[in-house]
Amino acid sequence: MTFTTRFAPSPTGPLHLGHAYSALLAHDMTRQANGRFLLRIEDIDHTRSRPAWEQQIYDDLTWLGVTWDAPPMRQSDRQAAYREGLHDLWARGLLYACTCTRRDIAAAVSAPQEGAEPMHGPDGLIYPGTCRHRYPRNTAQPPEGTALRLDMEAALASLNGASLRYCETGPAGTRPGQTIAPPARHMTLNIGDIVLSRKDFLGSYHLSVVLDDAAQGITDVIRGQDLADATAIHVLLQALLGLPTPTYLHHRLIRDETGRRLAKRDDARSIATYRAEGLSPSDIRTKVGL
User: Fold this and answer.
1) β-strand 95-98 against 147-150: which pairing, if any?
2) Distance of alpha carbon 103 from its chain centroid, rounded?
3) Which of 8, 63, 167, 204 could join 177 via S-S bond, C-beta 3.0 to 4.6 A?
4) What are the Cα distances from residue 74, in Å, to 18, 41, 42, 51, 120?
5) Cα–Cα distance for residue pair 194/120, rounded to 1 Å
6) 197, 207 in Cβ contact below 8 A?
7) Which of 30, 42, 93 is closest to 67 using CA atoms?
8) pLDDT digits (tens, 9 = 90+) for 208-223
9) Distances, alpha carbon 138 to alpha carbons 82, 97, 215, in Å
């Protein structure tokens, strides 16, 4: 099987040094393996995505020497695939409609009778299940104007005892892969009923990433350590939707002088800023430790 990976930025701001490290690392590993390097534009959130930022992605990657082996995939072209995946899960009774706002969730989990600190998962506060039995599930289509959540307990039960497993090759990608098997208790207590489609746009990061990885034939996912906790969700969705599970490499994060990981608000560390200051692609490699 040909080593195939991808770089999947969102066009919601400038690429920074953290993006440069992730793209270059994945590109280097692909070329060393004589594999395929693909580009995906994760513009599913149309409320924040901008064409100018998408063009900047192409310009920055080209300047860094990153090349891709097929036309870029754009999530905004994949709505039919996301709708089909949601319909599959809805028809099997694994999704439910949710109208809770973030404020509603925060109020529910911080109620005095809870008696403990609110728990956080990969998506923030773990949902308390307020809408789990509020709306009918036996309809042909989910209701309009609501979020759709995965019923975690029902989803796990539908696997009929099959365990979830994936291979993690480590932050450097140089050690033999270790098999990680997230237990069901971890999924229900530490992740909970995650959102798979939002009220203001179809799909979610978790749903789109597993469908897109399968569509692009990704064998190896190379991404930052900040997404490691979400991998159990993705492996579960792959099992539910009958999709292959890639090998995962979660690499170290590039941080600023205070130890905070870089974000798109860090314009001073954007690739475009360094280009304007006269740095070379080789200088960027040195800055990120490559």
Assistant:
1) antiparallel
2) 24
3) 167
4) 21, 5, 6, 12, 30
5) 12
6) yes
7) 30
8) 999 999 999 999 999 9
9) 20, 11, 29
Phi, psi for residue 171 in degrees, rounded to 5 = -65, -25
Q: Give the pair of three-digit tokens for residue 143.
A: 């209701």
- Which residues in 236-250 are b (16+ Cβ under 10 Å) and which e? bbbbbeebebbbbbb
Joined tokens for residue 238: 């792959």
User: What's 137's DSSP letter?
Assistant: -
Query: CA-to-CA distance for 273 and 287, rounded, in angstroms?
Result: 14
Contacts of 230 by beta carbon, 8 Å cutoff, 6+ apart: 122, 205, 206
Taking the C-alpha atoms of residue 8 and residue 117, their distance in angstroms, rounded to an integer, is 34
Residues of the chain with pLDDT under 50: none
Residue 208 makes CB contacts below 8 A (sequence gap 6+) with 42, 44, 75, 78, 82
Coil, helix or strand at residue 156: helix
Look up residue 192 and give its amino acid: G
CA–CA separation, 106 vs 109, rounded Å? 5
The CA angle 282-288-289, to the nearest 5 degrees, is 85
Output phi, psi for 179, to 5 deg.
Answer: -85, 125
H-helix or E-strand containing 180? strand 178-180
Q: Are 152 and 188 in contact (CB under 8 A)?
A: yes
In this predicted model, what pLDDT tens digit does every residue of 27-69 receive, in sequence order? 999 999 999 999 999 999 888 899 999 999 999 999 999 999 9
- Helix, strand, coil content of the chain in percent (nearest 5): 40, 15, 45
The total of other beta-carbon atoms located within 10 Å of residue 261's CB is 15
Task: Give the bridge partners for 39, in sequence order.
Answer: 7
